[in-house]
Structure formats: structure tokens, C-alpha cells
Design brief:
Length: 699
Amino acid sequence: MPSNTLYVASLEPEAGKLIVTMGLMEMLTRSIGNVAFFRPVIDSERERDGDIELIRKRYCPSMSYEESFGFQASEVKSFVAEDRMKFCLEELIKQLSNLKTRYDFVLCEGLNSNSFLSAFDVEINMEIAKNLGCPFVGVINGMNQTPRDIAKEIKITADAIQESGCLHYATFVNRMAEDTFGVLEVELDDPVEGDAPVFLIPENEELDKPSISDISEALKCKNVLERPDGMDRIVKQFKIAAMTMEHFLGHVEDGDLIIVPGDRDDIILASLSTLMSSNYPNIAGILLSGGFTPGPNTMRLISGRKYTVPLLSVQTDTYTTTTNAVSVPALINSGDERKIALALGLFETHVDAEQLRKLAILSETPKTVTPVMFEYGLFERARTDKKHIVLPEASDERILRATEILIRRDVVDITLLGNPEEISNRAAELGLDLKGVAIVDPASSELTEQFAQTFYELRKHKNMTLDGARDAMSSPSSYFGTMMVYEGKVDGMVSGAIHTTANTIRPALQIIKTIPGISVVSSVFLMCLDTKVLVYGDCAVNPDPNSEQLAEIAISSADTASTFGIEPRVAMLSYATGASGKGADVEKVREGVRIAKEKRPDLLLEGPIQYDAAIEPSVAKTKMPNSKVAGRATVFIFPDLNTGNNTYKAVQRSSGAVAIGPVLQGLKKPVNDLSRGCVVTDIINTVAITAIQAQYIQD
């Protein structure tokens, strides 16, 4: 009988339980969808529980903070002292039961170690898990332990969970040194039948360091520049600047938080100047002590340039400030997308999600597909057969930030186009880690002349000259990126953050060309509603398609739907349903339906049909009762761009639907367009979509 709960708990201090919680929540959300998060006991000392804030905002925003926890640790201490633990457990069971009536699954996270005494923490967690009927997930701290010690710890943990009466779901060993992996895998190579699986996750230095934001919040700093830039930078070490500028500069290292009295203008200016010099590493930020800030002329000089590192100020003296800053713990906060991406990347790279799913606890098939399930499912599908995507607009900060997240999540391999030194310097200025990203400069690449010759041969019948081909290929443009796709150097391209839609599509039409039988490139939006995903086309490319083009758009959209796991039931829309309407616009759709059915008799396709009859079963019963599509349509083909573009935006804004796209279709190899107003999340989703499309390309 599958359970619909899990209980995650650390079995020792600083085990990194939150990484496991996030990884499980990610998997559950995309597998089941409607998942709640519950902490039976939280720390009494914090005003708001950080784990609840992160998980609730990211995965279950409909939950209130108050319903996400049971008691504070101080209350549980009193219950234990007063012999009232039965009351405590009964109240927790009531709360969990209430959540289970409203959610398909509840992930519980246990009490933090060291809230009481360590041994008592473990007992309390197991007692609560047992009484709540939750299978238990233990998290062990593998830092600075030998493989033999960890193997013993795993055995002790399994015995303790079994003796407590809990069902043992899995054990995670977190924060392990990389060199212990192979040895420990040998130790664990012969598990006893029935033992819970063990998953190993390595230590990561960045997750073990605080961000500027962590320090600013803990020390209640003032942001002198009043800019949010760079607050997610990681502080690798602290430097107290008490020397002259000349001697101080010799000690600057990458990731330094410079702690300096606020009246040392020379050190402040020197620290900021390192950002503009390729001869110096990039600092993480500057923390001014003593309540001083730079004078008006120095501030005028500083504020004349947009620095990407924070300049913070506190009232305490330098010694106290340093002591306080060094003691700030490394946290993963709800707004820290870089750390979140890194944590999820670690989990997804080292944990076999399929093995987890095969356990009976996750055997039920979800009845609905939520926007969160669909978006996160994109990552998983892209990762199963990892593809290589080129991004030609590396000069854009959004592209660089999206690249870092995609690499950290191990979704795709990426090539950026541009000057390697300039891109690396810009990434360093932004505090981004682009290790593992290929950078190709068309101005100096050995591929440029080869691509120019090929482009010339492809387009000389259109009066293309060799010099013109060389010009097109000599800059980090969509032309060079498209040629990389054409020549098989990469699997797909995403562009449009800077370039227009025409500048993205034109090279693709000239070089890659369309699929046989399809003459028109079109687009769809994947519309993620509360419980399902619909496909809308064409909402971005073709202003007024004729009947033949409408038929091709319908066929392409149906194939796109299938690519993303959506059963295509195609409704070709008009202002009339069936034979009820007359006029040129209706006839255009009616003829498009005839052509589409002739070309693809395998498709479930209906039209002309009105939107309400296509989506609402009760209306379909009246207007088109015998249709296999009416009332159940998943793919909606609009008669023109005016209708399609306005409809998708109306649905998006009025219903809160997540609109992913535009997704281009009809090309032999995947190229996708971004809006120039796109945000980092849009880029990430579009790259994942492009990678999935590439998985379906047959050479």
C-alpha cells in the first residue's frame, strides 16, 4: 500500500538535510504535483524558519506559514518535562491528517540536530515519524569520515530506524569527500536484501560558505549603494584591511569580503578598482565598520559606475564586525537561485531518481499535471539524453546567469559565442562560475572560414557573395550559431534576448530549412494551467496563415505536443462551430481542417470549432456531441496571429497560467526564439525545451 508521506531527518549536526529535502521535494512535485511541506517541530530561536520559507515559496506557495509547522522546540521541551508527549503527538497527527485531505503527498522535515541534545534529537524525530506513520529518510554527515566509518554509521542508522519501529525508506550520506566515493561504493556493493537504499552526495565548498546576503541579514547591514546587485555572491574568506593600500592589494584573493573602517576611502576605492583590472581577482564585497561611510566626493566617484559587488555598512567596530561576520552560518535562502541550483544539481547528479520512484511509496500515477510538475519535468527529460546548445548572446547578463544555473543543474552542455576574455571577465564581475562552458569567438575561430564557405554554397543562388558570407559568420550572431547547429557542432540554438525574432528565424530558414512536407516555421506556447498543459499555436510568427499553412501549423503543433508528453487532440478554432458559420474566415479554417486530415489521418482533429466548445465538455455536448476532440482539446490552432497572441496573453494574465514559449516548430533542427523582455527563468525553460526537441531529431 503506497504511503503518501515521508519524514526526512538529520542524524547528526550539520548533515545538510535541506539539500535532501529540496531534492526529494523536486522529485515529488514533478511526479505527484500537489505536495505539502510540514515541519512537526521548528527551532524556537528563529523568527521565521528558513527551510519552511524556502520550500513553501518554491514548491507549495498556497500553504500558509502557520500550517507548515506544529510546535516550537521550546514547547516540545515542556511537553517532555511535563510528560505530555502523547498530547503533542496527537496534535501533530491531527495537523498531518488535515494536510493529507488537501494534498496528494506530505513531505515532513524533522527537528534540527542540536535543538536539544543530539541523541535526544534522533529519538524525538523517530518517535514523531513512527506516530505519524511516515517512512523515515536518514541524513548522515560524511565530512571528514573514512569510508569504513561511514559504512558503520550507515549500519548503525539502519538498525536504529528499524528498532524504533519506523519504515526505513532511504539513507543519504551528505557532504562526502570526492575521494571516498569509490571506496565507499565498494563497501556498499553487496547490500542485504530488504535494506533501504543508500545515496552518496559530495561536499561542495560554495554551499558551505555564506553569501553576502546571509551576512547582510545577520548583521543588519545598510546597503550604502542601495543596489541589490551581487548580494548572492559567495564569501570565500574574510580580509581585514588594516594596512596601507600598497601592502593591502598584495593580499586580495578571489571571493574576499573586505572588512575595513568606513573612513578608509583609499582601501574602498582600491578594492572596487580590482573589479576593473584583469591583474586582480574579484572580491565578493566590502563591509564598512564603525558606522562610517565614504565622504561625498568619494561617493560621487563610486556611484558613477554600476559595481556588481555590494558596499555594506555596520555600526560596530572592526573587531566586533569581523567576529560577527565569521560566525554567520552558510544558508540556502529562498531567493538565492545560485545556491538552490547548485544544491539541486548535486542531488540530481548523484541520486538515482528512478530508483527512488521504483519504491512502492511513489508508485501511484499523478492524475494532474501542474505548472510546477511540467517545468521541472523539462529538466529531467533534458537530462536523460543531454544535448549541446549554443547561445550566441553571451554579452547579455541574463544569458550568463541562465548558463550558470543550467550547468549547475547538469541539464545541457552549453557553448557561448563571443570573446572568451570578455565573457570570462564579465562572468567574474557578476560572481558567476562558468566552469565547463565552451566559449567560441567567431572573430578568431578556425570554424569561421569553413562556415562562410558552406553558407556561400547554400545561398549563392540567392546572390550571396563569399565576402557577405564571411561578414555574416565573423561576429557572435545567430548566423554563426545556426551554422553550428547545421554542421552538428551543437544540437540546437536559443537566441532572441538581444536579436529580433526575424534575426533568429531568418538564418534558420536559410541554413537549416524546414522539415519535408512543412513549408512554414510556426510557434506554440505551452500553457501551463492549474491541472493541465495546453498547446496554443501560432501565437508569435505567422500574421495571417492561409489554409495550407494552417494545416501545417496544426500538424507541427500536434507533433510538438507529443514531444512534450501531451496527447494531441487538435481544435482548429474559428468564430463558428461545425457547419453553423459562413464567411471567408470560417472557410479558411474549414479548408485547413480538410488538408490537415488528408495529410495526417492519424490525428484527432476537429474544426472549425469555437474555443468554448473545444475546451468545455458541457458546451461540447450541445454544439458537437459526437466529437472525440470537442470538450477535450489539448492543442488549439488560432486562425491568425492577432487572435492567437491576444488569447494566450488574456489566458496568461487572467488565470495565472504559466506561458512557456514561443517554441518554434517546423525546422529540421531546433532553434528557439526568446523575447527581448525575457527573464532568466524564460531562458532556462527555452534551453531545456530546445534540448528535448533535439532528442527527437533523426539525422
